[in-house]
Amino acid sequence: YIAIVDLGSQYTHLIQKRLTYINVNSILTSEFNQDVYNAKAVIVSGSPMSALRDDIKEIQENIGNLINMGKPILGICFGHQLLSLMFGGKIIDNPEYGRTRIFINKRNELLYNIDSPAEVWMSHGDCVVEAGDAEINAISEKGCISAIKVPNMNVYGVQFHPEVTHTRNGELIFKNFAQSIGFDIKEISANERVSNYYAYELNNIKSLYKGGRVVSAVSGGIDSTVATYIVMKAIGSNNVIPVLIDHGLFRINEVEESKINLEKAGINPIYIDASEEFLNKLEGITSCEERRKIIGELFAKKLNEVITKENASYLIQGTIYPDVIESGKTKYSQKIKSHHNVGGIPKWFNIDIIEPLRGLYKDEIRELAKIIGIPKEILNRHPFPGPGLAVRIIGKFTNEKLNLLKKADKIVNDVLKAKGIYNNLWQSVVTISESWVGVKGDEREEGYIINVRLVNSDDGMTADYYLPPNNVIDEISNRITNEVKKITAVSFITSTKPPTTIEPC
Ligand code: XMP
């Protein structure tokens, strides 16, 4: 197996995913423990740390030991910088984020069949400018050393992230690495992996379930629908009680559409309208993290009321694999946002949790939804954050802004659907911010800005922006400024992730 040492990068779990899909076993750990020393090879991940500013001595000592033992090593991003330094290189502060071209000047085993220039994605603040005794294999358009190999050893570094889907042919780097050090590669399709998982999980739930009622919070989104569906399949739908809690932060018509779509999937939720309570609590709150907390706690309270009333024994949670890793890895990672679904379970909850999606990645849930025949209306829906439009209001949360946002959001999505664009996007994120002076019919109006962020992505981890043709931009902008009172400007966000996250906060 390969040991992945997680030094806290946002993407570390994707390294494991790439290896899984070429049938290479791996373990993920944030310690240089015995499992790492016993591995056939080691991958050292990226990190929020800086090799210029943070204490890296212990990490380098461990990497040094592994190299002395003759272990093949691949350093990614921060890992690449550590290796460069260890062999006498030099790094300076010079960031690269998002889409970058690299030029291969000397091909090593890892770069076999990789184009030059190659389009890769970067996410780092420091740049390797000298590689010391290591061989320089590729240089970025900005002049940073982007790939190295230590001569006569299987020790490699890449500054870019081959694990993210936006790096073209990134999976080939892992194949090349694994193959060059003697692993047998077999490509596994998403369908194959997910079908196996589904069969396993049905049995797993059957064997864990000891009777009683199971409550499930559904939103009409793909994750909660698939999670609920699997449990219904495993233990029978009579024992499962789906609940749709309306926090008032859904989009126009979304609740009605969700009810219809869920019914098509055989799920008929109890509907609880708690919107007034949620919106009153949120009014005037500026911090997005605080809003998430308020929503999470109130949601849990509402859910608990149902659990008590129904005397339920279990709760279904839509935890996915990256969340599982996230909760176990705190050593080096940094919190960007509190990414729990709204039902993030507080400590006072005393109920057994069923997590049918805990072994899957976001895009695999879509694959599973196809396999089990979830209605296409749910399948084609864009991911929508649990705290809903609350995370799309920039600055102070007010009910006025929320209502304007709902109207603008509907216009954007109606136009995108009419033009056949909507289904090709990962998400269309419409947000509201302050403020822009407008002139409407010779009158001054101080109004709000609607920001439209259209993105393409495979898993939400990296994203590229999408800009529609001019006539579509015109239609969206004109309709919003004409039809929605108090909106005086419309902007389209044209930055990739990284550095810009998909949701504004
Ligand atoms: P970011 O904004 O981190 O988003 O680039 C990545 C993906 O996660 C979704 N997202 C959330 N989902 N609760 C959720 O359930 C949240 O608080 C949350 N914040 C972001 C986002 O829509 C995107 O698909």
Automatic annotation (TrEMBL):
Instruction: Name the keywords, alphabetized.
Output: ATP-binding, GMP biosynthesis, Ligase, Nucleotide-binding, Purine biosynthesis
CDD domains the UniProt entry points to: GMP_synthase_C
User: Could you tell me which InterPro entries the record lists for this protein?
Assistant: Class_I_gatase-like, GATASE, GMP_synth_C, GMPS_ATP_PPase_dom, NAD/GMP_synthase, Rossmann-like_a/b/a_fold
| Pathway noted in the entry | Purine metabolism; GMP biosynthesis; GMP from XMP (L-Gln route): step 1/1
Note the Pfam families from the entry: GATase, GMP_synt_C, NAD_synthase
Could you say which residues bind ATP here? S219, G220, G221, I222, D223, S224, T225
According to its UniProt entry, what is the function of this protein?
Catalyzes the synthesis of GMP from XMP.
NCBIfam families membership: guaA_Cterm, PRK00074.1
Which named protein is this?
GMP synthase (glutamine-hydrolyzing)
